[in-house]
């Protein structure tokens, strides 16, 4: 079996439409069972049936149980990111933005369980973080909508695309190779993160190296590191497809946006929120200007034909 046939076989096994639909059903069932299990554990602790010396914040309030199924849904969203990688670069990037927005929504569920309702709202660190995340979630939702509007705009003619069909085919094959390689990496990191997460919840004092903040981010810290490497490889392969200035700038800008998202995991508070919003705003502006280039080039092409 040659490499091209092996690549296609693995791609169909990991990233076919059937695999996506089957994975979606499995993750939804896991999310439902994990939510019920988390609620039961919290109930057993509160009834003193199960004794944990210093339970994690995730085991103190039923609202926090929403955090668990959301985590599994986020893993599936990462799978969708990989799934769309060979199909569309802009959809792949928008999935990154959707994931970071969902991470903030997930964090809101955690913060809701620890809110201190008092007149000192703006002097309490956790309450301030909740406020930042509340505002950021709405702002990100709108920015992602604008990104979606921009990525659906097409200005080039069908003839332009036909002229580049050979190079596009090679570029898509390269993206399929990268996406296929990302799937086992995703599974390994997810299992590793789940193991550390479980230890952090049930043995917080015995596992001091893994703070609650790190449990919140550990999967995505590692995976976004991998994404940055994948994006750089894609940028290099894109030069075989096109050397147009505006496309090179767009692809480079998307990498910078991904790096900003990755850096956001290393900080907390308002700096974390600012970095996330800046990353998506930067990506949106890059795509907006890229589309301006595409519109102008399409206009010049039509004028040349006339």
Description:
With 306 residues, this protein is mostly helical. The chain has one domain. Helix content is 79%, strand content 0%. The protein is built from ten helices and no strands. The longest helix is centred in the middle third of the chain and has 38 residues. The chain is globular, with a radius of gyration of 22 Å. About 2% of the residues have low confidence.
SSE arrangement:
Blueprint: H1 3-15, H2 17-46, H3 67-84, H4 89-112, H5 125-151, H6 158-163, H7 165-202, H8 212-241, H9 245-264, H10 269-305
Helix pairs in contact: 1-2, 1-7, 2-3, 3-4, 3-7, 4-5, 5-10, 7-8, 8-9, 9-10
N-end to C-end Cα span: 50 Å
> If you average the pLDDT, what whole number results?
81
SSE string, helices as H and strands as E: HHHHHHHHHH
Number of helices: 10
Key structural traits:
single chain, mainly alpha, 10 helices, 0% strand, globular
Brief synopsis:
The protein is built from 10 helices and no strands.
């Amino acid at each position: 079996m040659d490499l091209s046939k092996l690549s296609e076989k693995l791609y169909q096994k990991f990233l076919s439409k059937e695999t996506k639909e089957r994975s979606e059903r499995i993750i939804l069932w896991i999310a439902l069972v994990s939510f019920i299990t988390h609620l039961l554990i919290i109930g057993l602790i509160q009834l003193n049936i199960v004794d944990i010396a210093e339970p994690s914040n995730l085991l103190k309030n039923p609202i926090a149980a929403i955090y668990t199924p959301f985590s599994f849904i986020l893993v599936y969203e990462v799978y969708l990111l990989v799934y769309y990688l060979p199909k569309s670069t802009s959809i792949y990037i928008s999935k990154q933005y959707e994931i970071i927005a969902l991470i903030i929504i997930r964090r809101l569920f955690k913060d809701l369980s620890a809110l201190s309702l008092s007149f000192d709202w703006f002097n309490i660190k956790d309450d301030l973080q909740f406020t930042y995340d509340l505002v950021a979630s709405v702002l990100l939702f709108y920015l992602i909508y604008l990104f979606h509007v921009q990525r659906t705009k097409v200005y080039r003619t069908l003839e332009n695309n036909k002229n580049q069909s050979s190079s596009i085919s090679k570029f898509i094959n390269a993206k399929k190779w990268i996406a296929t390689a990302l799937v086992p990496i995703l599974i390994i990191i997810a299992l590793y993160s789940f193991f550390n997460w479980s230890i952090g919840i049930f043995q917080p004092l015995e596992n001091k190296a893994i703070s609650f903040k790190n449990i919140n981010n550990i999967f995505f810290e590692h995976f976004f590191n991998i994404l940055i490497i994948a994006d750089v490889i894609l940028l290099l392969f894109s030069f075989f497809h096109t050397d147009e200035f505006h496309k090179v700038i767009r692809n480079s800008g998307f990498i910078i946006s991904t790096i900003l998202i990755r850096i956001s995991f290393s900080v907390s508070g308002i700096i974390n929120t600012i970095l996330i919003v800046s990353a998506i705003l930067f990506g949106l502006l890059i795509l907006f200007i890229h589309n301006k280039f595409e519109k102008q080039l399409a206009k010049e092409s039509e004028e040349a034909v006339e």
